[in-house]
Amino acid sequence: MDDDLTVTTLADRPDLRPLLWEMPDSWPAFMLQDLVAHATLGRLVDEFPEFTLVATDPAGQLVARGLSVPFLLGTPRRGTLPDRGWDQVVLWALHDRIRGDRPDTVTALEIAIRPDRQGTGLSTRLVAAMRANAAAHGFTELVAPVRPSAKHLEPGTPMPEYAARVREADGLPEDPWLRVHVRAGAVIERVCPVAMTVAGSLAEWRAWTGLPFDASGEVLVPGALAPVRCDPERDQAVYVEPNVWLRHRL
């Protein structure tokens, strides 16, 4: 565990705002092309700095960030965690802020660790900090559309089947990232089959991945949780990412 780090919020450390996206991370290049994320991430940290976590080392260097936002779930038109996962809940949070609606739930959006700090237990610490931060603001639930960390190794496996796997020894999820959340107190609620969508021309996909994208059908892209559908006749390819909704009771 990284005991030498300080974890606080962007509200307490606004000087770190310019560094949030300069910190190296391990996101695949194509994942940065989700239009909802591209259009909203900057706005989200500006609107909700008290829900943006930052971790710094003794030298003051940013080594991890954790993004979360509050939103209103308990309405007749919502009520359940959405099939469109990450994209939908981000839009709900911004819509609620514009309307002045009072949120009742916090959703995690991202925990990113600088590559040289991965594998040190920092992700577990950020999950705990995100839970504590939501509770400190008076919320009783933290939800998360989780991107299972080892799913990219078997993109052809349906997400419901993958997410249901548990270890015989302790009954915890086989996937490491799902396991971190469950150990922290979460329960797996269900799959969100359309959590994020990345669409682009074949030239764009070639630039993002270095793959040829010249044949019709499914393309296995490193880092993708499911195959990318390539359609040369229409000069387009589309990636639809499934995630897993988890619910933390606080």
Features:
250 residues, Aminopeptidase, 9-stranded mixed β-sheet, alpha+beta, globular, single chain, 6 helices
CATH topology: Aminopeptidase
Number of spatially distinct domains: 1
- The first-to-last residue Cα distance is 23 Å
The helix count comes to 6
- CATH top-level class: Alpha Beta
Proportion of beta-strand residues = 25-35%
Can you describe what's shown?
The structure is a single chain. The protein has 250 residues and is α+β, with helices and mostly antiparallel strands. The protein has a single domain, classed as Aminopeptidase. Helices cover 26% and strands 28% of the residues. It is built from six helices and nine strands. The protein has helices spanning 35-47, 85-99, 122-136, 159-163, 176-183, 202-209; strands at residues 6-9, 52-56, 62-71, 105-113, 141-146, 186-200, 217-219, 228-231, 236-249. Strands 1, 2, 3, 4, 5, 6, 7, 8 and 9 form a nine-stranded mixed sheet that branches. A hairpin with an 8-residue loop joins strand 7 and strand 8 (228-231). It is globular. The two termini are 23 Å apart. The model has no long low-confidence stretch (mean pLDDT 96).
Layout of SSEs?
Blueprint: E1 6-9, H1 35-47, E2 52-56, E3 62-71, H2 85-99, E4 105-113, H3 122-136, E5 141-146, H4 159-163, H5 176-183, E6 186-200, H6 202-209, E7 217-219, E8 228-231, E9 236-249
Parallel strand pairs: 4-5
Antiparallel strand pairs: 1-2, 2-3, 3-4, 5-9, 6-9, 7-8, 8-9
